[in-house]
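agent> call fold_tool(seq_1)
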Amino acid sequence: QVQVLESGGGLVESGGSLRLSCEASGHTFNNHAIGWFRQAPGKERDVVAGISYSGTLTWYEDSVKGRFTISRDRAKDVVYLQMNSLKPEDSGVYYCAPLLALYSNSQPRAAWERESVYWGQGTQVVVSS
């Protein structure tokens, strides 16, 4: 059974940077487009970035464009999210998951249902003002 581990979160001041990592055990993510999702307190889990299985195509939610960069190391089977110029509204728990598909001009969707047991614990990001 696939297990997902997100890491790299923490407490950072506004304007700071963090790099999140996403790894899976029991299944490789190399054959999937992968997305990073953010869940703020009291809100739904929304996708903020996605990357194709090859790494050649990426997608970003408007509020993070120019500040976040998604990448992947296929040799290590790890997907990263570099977050720069962080804002308090970036705070939340960040998750990664495979995507159903990735296109440059449409918001991607997770391959897992919201209540799926495959979601990891996430990694918490707190940006102080």
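agent> call fold_tool(seq_2)
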Amino acid sequence: QVQLVESGGGLVQAGGSLRLSCAASGHAFSISTMGWFRQAPGKEREFVAAVNWSGGRTAYADADSVKGRFTISRDNAKNTMYLQMNSLEPEDTAVYYCAASVGRSCSSYGCFATPSNYGYWGQGTQVTVSS
């Protein structure tokens, strides 16, 4: 079992920054891929970014909305993943979820971006960007 706890969400003005953290515990040594997804009110959960836990390969949502503004990173020693979000926009308002996969080491965008590839999810952290 893997437990995931997100932190770092909050209310920020447009143009501001936030850094989300996701701390893994339990059988964290078995994690192969971790990712961030988000869900805005009335919308489906969407992929934001992900990282291969051992090799460090990363992937970001295809949409121009996050590329260049968000950066995913990890600290293997702390079993923690981060999402640095800069130049935030009101459209980034959502609940952000951390997810982990054990046994599936992703290297392709399709693998990273598919929610069903992740067996463990955090409870989510709210990010609200005011205009």
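agent> summarizing second result for user.
Residues 49 and 60 are 4 Å apart (CA to CA). Helices lie at 109-112.
agent> awaiting next instruction.
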